[in-house]
Amino acid sequence: MKMHMMVFPFLLAALPMMANAAERQLGPHIHGQASVNMSVDGGLMDVQVSVPGHDAVGFEHPPASPRERSAVDRATATLTGAGWLVPASAAGCTLASAKVSPHGFGDAAEPGGHADFDAEYHYACRKVAELDHVDVRLASAFPAVRKVVVDIITASGSNQQDLEGSATRVDVRQ
Q1: Residue 90: domain span
Q2: Exposed (0-12), middle (13-18) or buried (19+): which is 117, by Cβ within 10 Å?
Q3: Which residue, among 171, 78, 162, 86, has the nearest Cα to 133 in the 3D structure?
Q4: Element (H, E) at 141
Q5: Fewer CB atoms near the end CB (10 Å): N or C, the chain?
Q6: pLDDT string in tens for the chain (174-residue length)
């Protein structure tokens, strides 16, 4: 019993680090590259995205002017609207929820640290069997993004597809 009492404070001290690690799991921060994780299960499609702050707004620090604050607000609105993600129309997918989290732009940001926009989306698809592709237009929404790495998990397996240049189409059935 005494051993448990000695270990407990260390576990409590580690909780903030573990919570932060669980919150940010979309991969490395590489300027010019966005990451998209997509899963399709039943009639649901869940999507997570991470875009480096520099690619979305041109800087990675708390906004220092009204112009920079406006840039963060515009990027947040662009991601929240999810117009950059277009599921195959035959699937009848509708956006059920969207949550965007700009990290590294607040007062608690570390000087010289990285900043990202992370987002989560939940779609309901009436005809998920018709979901054969998704157009990912992050490079159009954020021109500094030169590559989008898309990881897809479906009932039939998983794969990774890289979009570069003007490529936007992701084959969901691959």
Answers
A1: 29-171
A2: buried
A3: 171
A4: helix 138-141
A5: N
A6: 444 444 333 333 443 434 444 344 445 678 899 999 999 999 999 999 999 999 999 999 899 999 999 999 999 999 999 999 999 999 999 999 999 999 988 876 676 678 999 999 999 999 999 999 999 999 999 999 999 999 999 998 999 999 998 999 999 986
What is the rounded CA–CA span in Å between residue 48 and residue 118? 7
The single-letter code of the amino acid at 132 is D
Report the distance separating Cα 3 and Cα 46, nearest Å: 42
How many Cβ atoms sit within 10 Å of the Cβ of residue 3?
Answer: 7
Locus of tokens 């990285």 = 114
Q: Which two tokens stand for residue 18?
A: 């573990």
List of E strands, 9-57: 33-41, 44-52
How many domains are contained in the chain?
A: 1
In this structure, are strands 147-154 and 33-41 parallel, antiparallel, or unpaired? parallel
- Is residue 3 in a domain? no
CA 100 to chain centre: 8
